[in-house]
């Protein structure tokens, strides 16, 4: 049994941009994680988001973006789960599918501030480690989460790139090439996405 420590990076990745890659790659190279999995979150059927690309197109963009990064993987585990889905369920499914792996949640400091609102967040903290990377945020986490033994804040480059901004820029015909992995830029361009 080959035990690996896997970091889980959840997101809609609409689109995946160099900020996501920089963070994921930094965390896998500067920690005891063997791999980082990009868990692409599916379209929530209860939310009408016209700007959200189809699940499989976003997964494809993640796949082309990480092709040359052997320690980064794409996961569509949430595509088959009933919606609305919660992280605690995803973790249970992954643990069942990969009992040999140890899963760690990766999140930005801004998300840590709302962790106490997550479904069964207490049980997530009981069973999983959370690695928190810095973001520019004024949101403050609960005092009880500040020094929680399961939560580890790490230094990582602070990348404030927004997928929303990138989508708006594409719509406004601005050049977003430097913000996207070249393969993703090409894919978006060929598919005429976000226009």
Describe the 3D structure.
The model has no long low-confidence stretch (mean pLDDT 94). This protein has one domain: Rossmann fold, CATH 3.40.50. It contains eight helices and six strands; from the N terminus they run E-H-E-H-E-H-E-H-H-E-H-E-H-H. Helix content is 35%, strand content 16%. The chain has a six-stranded parallel β-sheet with strand order 3-2-1-4-5-6, with helices on both faces. Helix 2 links the parallel strand 2 and strand 3. With 195 residues, the protein is an alpha/beta fold.
Short description:
The protein contains eight helices and six strands. It has 195 residues and is of the alpha/beta class.
Write the topology of this structure.
Layout (H helix, E strand, L loop, with lengths): L4 E7 L6 H12 L5 E6 L14 H11 L6 E4 L11 H11 L4 E7 H4 L8 H7 L1 E5 L9 H4 L4 E3 L9 H9 L10 H10 L4
Parallel strand pairs: 1-2, 1-4, 2-3, 4-5, 5-6
Helix pairs in contact: 2-8
The appropriate CATH architecture is 3-Layer(aba) Sandwich
CATH homologous group name? HUPs
Termini separation? 47 Å
Average of per-residue pLDDT values: 94
Let me know the largest β-sheet. 6 strands, parallel
* Poorly predicted runs of 5 or more residues: none
CATH topology: Rossmann fold
Q: What sort of overall outline do the alpha carbons produce when their principal axes are compared?
A: globular
Total E-strand runs: 6
């Amino acid at each position: 049994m080959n035990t690996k420590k896997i970091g889980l990076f959840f997101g809609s990745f609409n689109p995946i941009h160099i900020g996501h890659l920089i963070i994921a790659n930094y965390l896998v190279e500067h920690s005891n994680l063997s791999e980082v999995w990009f868990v692409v979150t599916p379209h929530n059927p209860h939310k009408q988001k016209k700007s959200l690309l189809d699940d499989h197109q976003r997964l494809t963009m993640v796949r082309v973006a990480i092709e040359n990064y052997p320690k980064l993987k794409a996961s569509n585990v949430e595509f088959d789960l009933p919606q609305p889905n919660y992280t605690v369920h995803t973790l249970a499914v992954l643990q069942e599918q990969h009992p040999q792996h140890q899963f760690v949640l990766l999140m930005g400091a801004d998300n840590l501030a709302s962790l106490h609102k997550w479904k069964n967040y207490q049980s997530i903290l009981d069973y999983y480690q959370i690695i928190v990377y810095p973001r520019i945020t004024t949101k403050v986490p609960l005092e009880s989460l500040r020094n929680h033994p399961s939560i580890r804040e790490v230094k990582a480059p602070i990348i404030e790139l927004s997928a929303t901004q990138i989508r708006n820029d594409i719509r406004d015909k601005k050049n977003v090439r430097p913000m996207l992995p070249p393969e993703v830029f090409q894919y978006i361009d060929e598919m005429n996405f976000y226009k």
